[in-house]
Structure formats: structure tokens, C-alpha cells
Description:
The structure holds 2 protein chains of 2 kinds.
Chain A: H1 10-15, E1 43-47, E2 53-58, H2 62-81, H3 84-100, H4 102-111, H5 116-136, H6 140-144, E3 146-148, E4 154-162, E5 165-169, H7 177-188, E6 192-196, H8 203-213, E7 222-225, H9 229-238, E8 244-247, H10 252-262, E9 268-271, H11 278-282, E10 285-293
Parallel strand pairs in A: 5-6, 5-8, 6-7, 8-9
Antiparallel strand pairs in A: 1-2, 3-4, 4-10
Helix pairs in contact in A: 3-5, 4-5, 5-7, 9-10
Chain B: E1 7-10, E2 13-16, E3 32-33, E4 35-37, E5 40-42, E6 49-54, E7 59-65, H1 69-85, H2 92-108, H3 110-121, H4 125-144, H5 150-153, E8 159-161, E9 164-168, H6 174-187, E10 191-195, H7 202-213, E11 221-223, H8 228-236, E12 242-246, H9 249-258, E13 265-269, E14 275-278, H10 284-296, E15 308-312, H11 316-329, H12 348-363, E16 367-370, E17 385-388, H13 395-398, E18 405-411, H14 414-422, E19 429-433, H15 437-446, E20 451-454, E21 473-474, E22 487-489
Parallel strand pairs in B: 3-7, 9-10, 9-12, 10-11, 12-13, 14-15, 14-19, 15-18, 17-18, 19-20
Antiparallel strand pairs in B: 1-2, 4-5, 6-7, 8-22, 13-21, 16-17
Helix pairs in contact in B: 2-4, 3-4, 4-6, 10-11
Amino acid sequence: MATQKKDLSASVSKQTNSERIQVLKTYKVFIDGKFPRTESGRYYPLLDQQGKVIANMCLSSRKDFRNAVVAARKAQVNWASKSAFNRSQILYRMAEMLEARATQFVDELMLMGCSKSAAKQEVEQSVDLLIYYAGWADKYGQVFSSVNPVSGSYFNFSTYEPMGVAALIADGSSGLLGLVSIIAPVIVGGNSAVVLASYTKPLCAISFSEVIATSDVPAGVVNVLTGDLDELYTYFASHMDVNALVYQNVEDSLLEKMQQSAVRNLKRIKKLEAAPSPYAILACQEVKTTWHPIERIGASGSGY
Amino acid sequence: MTNKKAKLKLGNTSFSYAPAPESTSHVNIKSQYDLFIGGKWQKPSSKKYFTTLNPSTEKEIAKVALADKTDVNKAVMAARMAYETTWSKLSGKERGKYIYRIARLIQERAREFAVIESIDGGKPIRESRDIDVPLAAAHFFYTAGWADKLEYAFPQREVSPLGVAGQIIPWNFPLLMAAWKIAPALATGNTVVLKPAETTPLTALKLAELLQDAELPDGVVNIITGAGETGAHLVNHKDVNKIAFTGSTHVGKLIQSAVVGTSKKTTLELGGKAANIIFEDAPIDQAVEGIINGIYFNQGHVCCAGSRLFIQEPVYDQVIQKLKDRISTLIVGDPLDKNTDIGAINSKEQLKTIKKYIKAGLEEGAEIFQSACSVPKEGFWVKPTLFTGVAQSSKIVQEEIFGPVLTVQSFRTVDEVIQKANNTPYGLSAGIWTDKGSKIFNLTSQMKAGVVWANTYNKFDPASPFGGYKESGFGREGGLQGLAPYVQFN
């Protein structure tokens, strides 16, 4: 099988001595900070435009998804309790790692059908998006939280908290930007995520997992699966320990089925805007209002 | 009906409370109410009427129209027409002035509304007079001011209203819930079809009279009465853009399921099973008052009631004793008596539900304590009840009872109680009692709940968002954040 695989990096291969056999990369999935194969042992061949096999991608199973949710749940509390400043630095680190490996991502995007200029632009946009959301980590709370003017001798404030574990369906039409634009706003707010990568453009998702793995993102905060949405959507929508189902672009008929399955635990279903926006962060947040009395008598203002 | 037997014990002396009934002379309830559609009172196409009872006497108060599918359609059409022709064309400034008018009229007629709320729903006049009605007025007043300031609520975004909002409210805070629903809908430019609960329709219908007095344009708010079926017609109506529901998690899920595949937005404010946690370093007497208020306020018919009490072991015996002493002084009886602490259970059906849970608690081997007070012969009553010796897995610990029934568990460590408190599918509210500031911040941030009270409980305010995590629903009501469920970004 491996001999059928096309060279991943055309530019590198040209320079190699023809005697040398290139080492090809095996694409696996990313669960709990590790790179296992799907437990199901199933795969699907990813073909290039000439019909040649680029890679054998993992066809993730329900069990893989459940394992990923367990990892995400375990990681979430610790991730959310990190300081916002720390989360900001970690997202910034992801941008640094992606920038440093830009050529690899450009090559992968081209392999999956992108033009060189489009690929380059997509990688640059992805890096910039990570920087954008890194900056929001310790600001969205300031901008959107409130100290409420209570009519009585109480002090209270409303702040944003992560929903918990989010199941993400990356936009199938893009290899990298769709993935980054759905992961970044979800995790910057303290959620953990299980992401299903694009079926037809999955290479970058696994390479991006390597970026995540080397950016001090704690294991389990982001888990990345490759596979078939038609097969997995029902588990994404019905899992009782998933708090939110997040997507950017899903067919109506599929969305309807997911909405129905999500009713069981009143899972929040959120369509994220792909454009950079703090509202994309807020989409996966809950508002909590915290009260305490103050020692002030006669401040009650609900009279006439 | 009086509370002749209610006594307060102080040392060896005990005092009886003389009855102190609220006057009903200024209250005007008609014998029959039609549907309020398009600014007019209209006979139901079903030609059917149902009765609303006084739960403290089981006597009929009035007959109320039953809205069927045709009536629901009429109401939605009236709301649509009002949206297209008047309300969406009105500036925020003018919308706001109408809402201010409503607030003022409620304040002027506050006592009448309070008495009707207590007669129709069974809650003590002290609560309807001091909490429900003033809060409802305050809610309209607060929200009115947002109508012409929406651009400040959503930075960098232009918003527009959704259209027609279908709103279904429960029987525990009838007028207050109507205010929570109607005020933000109107302020953001939507029109409304509101369905009050079938056991407590009267204050909503009185509100309709008041909307006429306010000269609110016809059809901007329509109020239709009926039971679950009427609500279902409203939820399923094709021309409704928004469903806002407060009620049980079970019905909330049915509604969420019914809107699948439509573009309808939903806000669900559902059930709860809140933890109320008391630490050994808490101000104990203050905490005991808070626990009593947390569970026995409004007969425990409160979605955010502090129904699961967790006491840290060193103060367990002390707190239990003080709770029992305090429970014994609570006056159960005539909702219109100003001395009454706990009024009537809202309906026969709810009484049955609560009794079923008390039986389940006993069957599971929990130890029960109930006040020795007497209750009137007629009407629906439950004495304030406390269960000890329960487990996390007990039915009465897991499920929402919606009555004056408190379960008590003990704990040793902070981590243990956080885990126990969050171990429920609900996530509406929580309470923390401790004198230590750092512990308060730790605990309040760890509670998976939308409202957390520290050293207080069951406090509500129009400027303060309210709503749940997890299966307690989604969306917020009140405050700046309470506007979002009624707008869309352009």
C-alpha cells in the first residue's frame, strides 16, 4: 500500500537522492494527546485528483468518539481553571507552531487540490485566526460580563463560563481554515473539544494535531477524529456527556436529525460564524450570575 | 379560614397569632373570561370554558375560555398583523414608552394583582405583595429602557426582532413570569402570544385589561388560555418565530423536539434540583433562615428551590435541630392571611405529585420530619417536610418534587460536596453558606448552575440574568443578557 502513496512533499522529494526511499507519514487520529489508530481498524483511502492513494485515513468508530469524549471530559475542568492569560499564551503558541510548519501545510493543502496561492493564503489566515482568538482569551469576559445594578442590598455579577465538552463538525470544504476556525473559539473559552475533520480534506487535521501536541495544550483538550459524518453524526448528537454540538456547515437534513438526537440531554446546538468574532466564543459559553448580600439596609428599590 | 392554631413558642410562653386577612374588597374578578386577541375580548371557537379554582378552598373563582387550534391561529395572525403594521414600524423610543406605561399601571394596581395572585395560585399574600407583583412591575420598568438602546447591548452588531413570539408560562409565578416573557419581547420589537398556565390564568387576564388601559396597539400582546394542548398548537404554529417556555424539563424537551427542522428559536427555563451547601464556618442562624426560604418559599413551587441541602459534618446536628425548630414555627394556611408563611399547594394534581414523592422517600427508608402544625380541612396542603438519611441515588434526591420537601445529606470535604452538588442532570441554581470569601469564590465558580447565591437564596432582580445550565434549559431572562434570545443579528 505504502508504495502507492504519493510523495507528501514534492519539493523535498525533488531534492532527494533517487536512491533514497522516502519515509511516508501514517495518518492516525488524535485522542487524549496521543496518536492511536482507530480502534475499529477500519480505513478509507484518500485519493488525489489522478485517483492515486495519498493516505489511508482512519475511519473512526463510535468507540473512538466515546474514548475521545472521556478524554475531553477529563481534561476540561483543568483547562477551564487555567488562567485566561495562560490559555491565551497556549493559543498563541499554536499559532507559532503552525507558522513554523507553514510549508508542510501548504504542501498538504495542494495535495488535496488547493492552488498554491490559495493554500498559502489559507495557512496564513489560520495562523492569524489563532492569534486573533489568543488575544480574546482574557478579554471577552471583560467586554461581555456585567456587574448588575441590583434593586436591593445585594451585589451580583454575570460572567461567562464554558459549556464543557463540545463535539465539533469541521467545515468539510476546507482542509485547515475550517478546522482552526471551529476549534479556536471553542477552546479559548475553556471548553474541550472532539472534532470530526473534513472527510475529503483530512490531512491537515492530523498535522494540525501535531501542532496542538507541541503547543502545551493539555492532553484531551482537543481530540481529532477522521471519518464519515453520515456514520458518526448520531453519536455526536446523542452522547449524554457532550454539552454542545458545534458546526459551521451541515446539510439541513442531517442537521434536523442531529437536533432530534440532541434533545435527550438538551445539548446546545450552535452554528458558528466562520469569520473572526467574539460572538463565536460566546456561542459556547453559559452565563452565570453570582449573588452576595451587602451590609446596606434600606437599599431596596422595588417600591413605588 | 384562619390560623387560630398557629403559635409561636418563646421559652415557656406561647403566643397565638390573631388572623390578619388581607382585604379583598378592591378586587374585581369577572365570572367569565374570554380570549384576548387583537386587542379585543373574543369568544373561543371551541365554545368551551374551564374553571379556575382557589386551591385554598377548592371553590371556583371564574370560568376561563379554552383556546383551540382556530383560536391559536387567530391569536398568531393578530400578532403577525400587529408586527407587520405597527410594532416593527415603531421606534425603540416609543416602544419603550408603552412598556413604561405597563410598569406604572401594575404599580398602581399592585394590591389588586397581589390578592388575585394569592387567590388563584395559593401563594401567601406576603409573597405576592412583596415579591411577585413589585418584581413584575420592576421587570417592565427595567426592560422598557432597553428598547431604544439595543445598539449598546450588542457591540458591533445590528440586531432585528424575530417576529411573533409564542410564550408559555407556568403556574408558580404567574404574573412575574408573564413580565419576564413579555417585557424583553416587546422591548426588542417582537409581538406576543402568551399562554398562562391553566390553573393560574387570572393575573394574565387582568394584565390584558391593563394592556388595554395602556393603549398598547391591538395585537401586540395576545393572551389565550388553555392547557397543554393549547400550548402545543402555539408551539407547532408555522407563523411563530420564537418559543419561550418556562416549565418542566419533560415538557421543555417535547417543545425542543417539536421545533426541530424549523427556524424557530427557543428559550427554555426548566426544572432544577439545586444544592444548598452549608459549611461549618457559615453564619448558622442566617444560613438556617436562608435554607428555609430556599425550599419553603412559594410552597417549594420554585424551579430554583434549594431542595438538596448539604451540611458539613461538624455542624450537622446543630443545623438539623435549628431547622426543625424553625420549621415548627412556620404558619401554614390561608394565603390571604398576612401571617401565613406557607400557602396552598397550587392544584390537586401537584398535591398528588408531592405526596407520591413523600411516600417514595419513606419507602426508600429515609427519615421524615414534618411540622406539627395543623392545616385547614379544605384546600390542598402539605406541611413543611424534611428528609434525612437519604443517598445521592434516592428518588427524592434525584428528581424535582416542586413542593415543600427538603432532603438533607452530610459531607466532609469541599471536593466531595462539589462533586455531589453537580451530580445531577439539572443546573439551574445553587447556594453556598460560609463566612470565608475565598471559599465562596471557589465554590460559586465550581457550581454548574446559572444562578449561584452565596449567603443568600432565592433572590431575583430584573437587571440580573436568570437561567440554567444542562437540562435546566438554555437562554437567559432578565438583564442585558436577557435581550439576546429575542433578537437576530443582521
